[in-house]
Amino acid sequence: MEEYKVIQVNDLSMAYLERGDGPTVIALHAATADSVQMGWLTRIIVHEGFNVVTPDQRGHGRTGNPAGDLHLPRLVDDFLEFAYLLGRSPIHGIGYSMGGAVLLYAAQRRPDLFRSLILLGTSYKAPSEQRIRAAVGPLEDAPDGPRKVFDLETGIVVGWDASVEAFTGVTCPTLIIIGDRDEFIDPAENLELYSTLPNAELLIIPRCDHLGLVRHPLLTYALTDFYSHISR
Q1: What's the pTM value of the predicted model, to 2 decimals?
Q2: pLDDT tens across 162-204, in order?
Q3: Alpha-carbon distance 213 to 67, whole Å?
Q4: Range(s) of the domain holding residue 209
Q5: d(C-alpha 37, C-alpha 120), whole Å
Q6: DSSP class per residue in 178-192
Q7: How many independent structural domains does the chain possess?
């Protein structure tokens, strides 16, 4: 069993796992997931010669949530403090879904912190209430985890609302990957982000939904290709 480490970040004790040797990649999980469930992704990155750090974000896995909300700016604050305390900047970042949004907004505030970004199944703006309900069903009937995460007043959608133009300062190499049938995101939003970021690449995977992105063979190929031609 892997051994968790803990760092005191803002008002909480943030648990994280660490694997591999080399330049550091911080990998952020999706909503309602945790660091263990990022194993499918971290194995690829470790194999490419990186040290991979996977924190349990606020209110997920072994990390609590004393604040009572999961507003995106709060998660971004957590990430920036975590990265500072880890002391390995500049770092590479990779995030899936909510994790990608946290990284993108962190890079907006601190573009100097990142050597590269990979954004998987995410967007610069929150999924609409209509898309959330279509994907997870009525929030009032959803299990406790999704209900808290997607709550329209206390969940992650709050503060996830910048215009695409706000990200023009994110200049590090960035790979954006989306499935063409993603339930939460319109791929057109990823095209807008790709057109805005000055050093971005975009892969739209055909016949692929949000969860289908996990372990898709094209994803493995895209990651290894990206890491082969960027500066480490």
Answers
A1: 0.97
A2: 999 999 999 999 999 999 999 999 999 999 999 999 999 999 9
A3: 31
A4: 5-229
A5: 15
A6: EETT-SS--HHHHHH
A7: 1
232 residue type, one letter: R
Please tell me the predicted confidence (pLDDT) of residue 1.
60
pLDDT for residue 218 is more than 80: yes
CATH number at residue 224: 3.40.50.1820
| Residue range 105-155, pLDDT digits in tens | 999 999 999 999 999 999 999 999 999 988 888 888 888 888 999 999 999
CA distance 71 to 153: 9
Tell me if 93 sits within 8 A of 117, measured CB to CB.
yes
